[in-house]
Specification:
The protein is mainly alpha-helical and 205 residues long. The protein contains nine helices and three strands; from the N terminus they run ααααβαβαβααα. Helix 3 runs antiparallel to helix 7 and helix 4 packs across helix 7.
Length: 205
Amino acid sequence: MTRQRIDGGGDLRIRQLRARQMLRGELEGADLEQYLQERVGLTTLERAQNWARANAPWPLTFGLACCAIEMISVVGSPRMDAARFGAEVFRASPRQADMIILSGRVSVKMAPIIRRIYDQMLEPKWVISMGACASSAGMFNNYAVVQGADKFMPVDVYIPGCPPRPEALMYGIIKLQNKIKGQPDLGWRERYRAEGTEEQGTELA
């Protein structure tokens, strides 16, 4: 342990000396180029923007049914700290939010209102369908409930469960962040090669 600490301290001392040499203009040629390559990271403006957007998704203060209680616990409870992912800033105005979490069943009367709120949100914007009711009507499979939020608006991430636990919502937010960064995780169909009959029929056609 003592030797490792001494070596670590020596490396720190060397880095400090090289930094001083660079500031004084004493590093030139290949030494300066190597120093810069070790410490300068290059990226594109688009990737930097996506990184910033992924780490600050501001959700809309919007709840539909019982799943909203689980959504509230993600923000208000000390165990589920959404601030680590930049998603704790719930906004009451759609003009200030860029993510909407559909937490509960969507009735036929409520669908046009949700769509209007979604249209009022500024681009880019994302949608998380939380729970079985918002994703596929769940147990409320009747004429008064929309059979899936994707019938009237685009959905980026689906979170199963009735109701899903706060950990599931946090996992869904992480999935959305990966998607925003341009590195979406493979879906279970692609991962396990479980294409349905509709996909196979499309490929054959």
